[in-house]
Specification:
Length: 292
């Protein structure tokens, strides 16, 4: 007989999976370690698999444990989103939250939505490349303006527009005055962002071939990237609207002519039905490209 997955046990599991130490996990959860151990064993019994290997060397995730840790994030985020929406509805509030990426000014769509739904409280939240999708899964936003690449699993999306990408260079860089550059021209540079955000980088970058650019870099804001570009620590490849929005005198942006445009989509949780959601999607579709 199949049992429903217990979200409380799943939360306990994620803390142990992140800490890889039952004692520390129990402290984080503020429960006794024997209680935590029993809950994890119960979860393993319910799933019929081992999630952890515990020996004298410590605690490690099994293959099934690693899979569950990946899946657990989305499940817990969805549960949190449901709780947020129910709490808002219980308070009798009519609110709608729009998430946007740096460089995108979405006021035209928000104003069109307000005209259609004048009694709704509208909130906005700024995202980055690493959390533009997460805000939808955990319920912090009702819709999110998404830049490619992103993981569309569990989402519905509406393509809005595409825009060129540019490289941001210090003003005294040899290519700063060029009318355009190729990716090969940048092969010896250091990329100041997660290479996954610029998939084409792997095919040309010397640092990737030397094994110094293949791992995920710490997430940085646009402002941080530009500061590092200005002090000659590396380069950044950004959408044109972002580069224009953050224009400053000590850096230059140059079109990368052999990079395809980056697409901007509107995204929301798959399967969600809401008159407010329908109204905003319609407003964004009519407005199209946001002001920059």
């Amino acid at each position: 007989m199949h049992r429903d997955l217990d979200l409380r046990k799943l939360r306990y599991f994620t803390v142990v999976a992140d800490e890889l130490n039952f004692g520390r996990a129990a402290e984080v959860l503020m429960i006794a370690q024997p209680v935590l151990s029993r809950q994890i064993r119960a979860l393993e019994d319910e799933l019929g698999v081992r999630l952890f290997v515990r020996d004298t060397r410590g605690t490690e995730l099994t293959e099934h444990g690693r899979l569950l840790r990946t899946e657990a994030e989305g499940l817990l985020a969805s549960a949190a989103a449901v709780r947020r929406r129910i709490a808002i509805a219980a308070r009798g509030e009519a609110s709608f939250t729009v998430a946007f990426m740096p460089g995108l000014v979405v006021s035209d769509a928000v104003l069109a939505f307000r005209r259609a739904c004048p009694d709704v409280t509208i909130e906005v939240v700024r995202t980055g490349w690493d959390d533009q999708v997460r805000v939808l899964h955990d319920g912090r936003a009702d819709v999110s303006y998404l830049r490619r690449p992103f993981d569309a699993a569990g989402l519905s999306t509406e393509p809005l527009f595409a825009e060129p990408r540019v490289v941001v260079l210090p003003t005294d860089h040899a290519l700063a005055a060029a009318s355009g550059v190729l990716m090969d021209d940048l092969a010896e540079e250091h990329l100041l962002q997660d290479p996954a955000a610029v998939p084409e980088w792997a095919g040309v970058a010397a640092e990737m071939r030397r094994g110094r650019g293949g791992s995920r870099s710490p997430s940085r804001t646009v402002e941080e990237k530009l500061e590092l570009v200005a002090v000659r620590q590396g380069i950044a490849i950004l959408p044109l609207s972002t580069a224009r929005f953050y224009r400053r005198p000590d850096v230059r942006y140059v079109p990368v002519t052999d990079l395809p445009p980056t697409a901007v989509h509107l995204g929301w949780a798959q399967g969600r039905e809401s008159r407010l959601l329908d109204a905003f999607v319609a407003a964004a579709r009519v407005v199209g490209r946001p002001a920059a």
